[in-house]
């Protein structure tokens, strides 16, 4: 990278650790390093901090602290939910998911398909909204596990969880939601919304990488996925990652305290960025702009490769991302963009900007100043542009 400046607009990939989170974690690397499972006072002191963090995280989603299992990441939480519930239900159960899920959900679902389960991947429409009629049809006729995301990591599109829960519950299904991108960005109240399981990840809300959690509603039957000691009430073996758990607790507290103000401010910045970039020729927004995370914008610049734009932006110190996966030398549009039926000419130019509470007006000014000339230059070189 030749630029000195860092404008970080890739917060759906990961976020920086909040200073308050870092401060809170430090004593647990130095003075308070006991094992929370130990009987002695030193372990007990640490265990109290783990439980305090559990309470803070539970408060963010209005859960009972006993319903929170700490894990190592969002992927583990998703895997734990799907493996645990599918094993409990047995192979006569259907597993229902959507085509736009994260690989941490699609992967385990497809694993069970290979092992004889009937797995249904629901379609989405042109703006990335779930086909609820297809869900209604899929849930009837026998036990089912439904795993659909709360908010999409690439487009920010928010699924109508209330309606989804109603449909799944009326058919007696088990509902898991991958809320990795929703927790900390959207108000969530599991007392009002009958989800059975909900996955979240620390590094998406200014806690460190390597910590996550799974909410499991009391009474939900879930086979233990990580067998070991009696930690997490016997639901996940392995000595707890105490510093990171403490960090996640503080991150949850910060999110709960500042969510409303931050959402308004971040959405304003995102909208200004988006409006400014829509002035570029053949620019479009992908996804349902009426039901979208306040921090996310997925845009396409037709006839230009997203990767080429990202490469130039990176050189200017601007971090964004594309949903494309680079495999065997060919640049494929992401499965999310493809599932939405975004035209080929636009799908290849899709770019995700995702903001956080640490972005400023100056960041947006900088991108609006630097990016249009990059787009213009790449368009001039594109073999597909005739005008
Ligand atoms: N689910 C979604 C929607 C995500 O965006 C991510 C991470 O990008 C994950 C799951 C996986 O989370 P983690 O990186 O903590 O494993």
Strand ordering within the main sheet: 2-8-7-6-5-3-4
**Proportion of residues in extended strands:** 5-15%
**What is the CATH architecture assignment of the largest domain?**
3-Layer(aba) Sandwich
Task: Give start-end ranges of low-pLDDT stretches.
Answer: none
What CATH first level of the largest domain would be assigned?
Alpha Beta
Number of domains as seen in the coordinates: 2
Total strands: the figure is 14
CATH superfamily of the largest domain: Type I PLP-dependent aspartate aminotransferase-like (Major domain)
Helix content: 40-55%
Bound molecules: pyridoxal-5'-phosphate
The name CATH uses for the topology of the largest domain is Aspartate Aminotransferase, domain 2
Shape field? globular
* Beginning-to-end CA distance, first to last residue: 32 Å
What's the total helix number?
13
- The overall pLDDT, averaged over residues, is 94
Largest sheet entry: 7 strands, mixed
Query: What's the alpha carbon Rg, rounded to whole Å?
Result: 22 Å
Based on helices, strands and strand pairing, what is the structural class?
Answer: alpha/beta
């Amino acid at each position: 990278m030749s630029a000195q400046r860092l404008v970080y607009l890739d917060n759906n990939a990961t976020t920086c650790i909040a200073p308050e989170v870092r401060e809170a974690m430090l004593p647990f690397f130095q003075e308070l390093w006991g094992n929370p499972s130990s009987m002695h006072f030193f372990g007990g002191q640490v265990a109290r901090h783990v439980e305090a963090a559990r309470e803070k995280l539970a408060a963010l989603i209005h859960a009972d602290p006993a319903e929170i299992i700490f894990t190592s990441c969002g992927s583990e939480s998703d895997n734990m939910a799907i493996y645990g519930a599918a094993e409990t239900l047995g192979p006569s159960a259907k597993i229902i998911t959507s085509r736009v899920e994260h690989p941490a959900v699609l992967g385990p679902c497809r694993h069970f398909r290979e092992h004889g389960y009937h797995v249904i991947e629901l379609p989405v429409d042109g703006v990335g909204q779930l086909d609820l009629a297809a869900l209604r049809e899929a849930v009837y006729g026998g036990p089912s596990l439904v795993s659909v995301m709360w908010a999409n990591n690439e487009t920010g599109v928010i699924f109508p969880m209330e309606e989804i829960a109603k449909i799944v519950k009326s058919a007696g299904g088990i509902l898991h939601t991958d809320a990795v991108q929703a927790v900390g960005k959207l108000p969530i109240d599991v007392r009002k919304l009958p989800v059975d399981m909900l996955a979240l990840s620390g590094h998406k809300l200014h806690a460190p990488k390597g910590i996550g959690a799974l909410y499991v509603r009391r009474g939900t039957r879930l086979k233990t996925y990580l067998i070991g000691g009696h930690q997490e009430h016997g639901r996940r073996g392995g000595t707890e990652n105490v510093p990171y758990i403490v960090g996640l607790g503080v991150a949850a507290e910060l999110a709960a305290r500042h969510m409303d103000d931050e959402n308004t401010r971040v959405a304003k910045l995102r909208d200004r960025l988006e409006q400014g970039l829509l002035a570029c020729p053949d620019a479009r927004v992908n996804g349902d702009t009426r039901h979208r995370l306040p921090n996310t914008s997925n845009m396409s610049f037709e006839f230009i490769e997203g990767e080429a734009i990202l490469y130039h932006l990176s050189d200017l110190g601007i971090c964004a991302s594309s949903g494309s996966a680079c495999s065997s030398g060919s640049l494929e549009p992401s499965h999310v963009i493809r599932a939405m039926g975004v035209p080929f000419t636009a799908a290849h130019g899709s770019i995700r900007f995702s903001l956080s509470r640490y972005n400023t007006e100056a960041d947006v000014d900088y991108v609006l100043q630097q990016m249009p000339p990059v787009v213009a230059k790449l368009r001039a070189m594109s073999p597909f542009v005739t005008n």
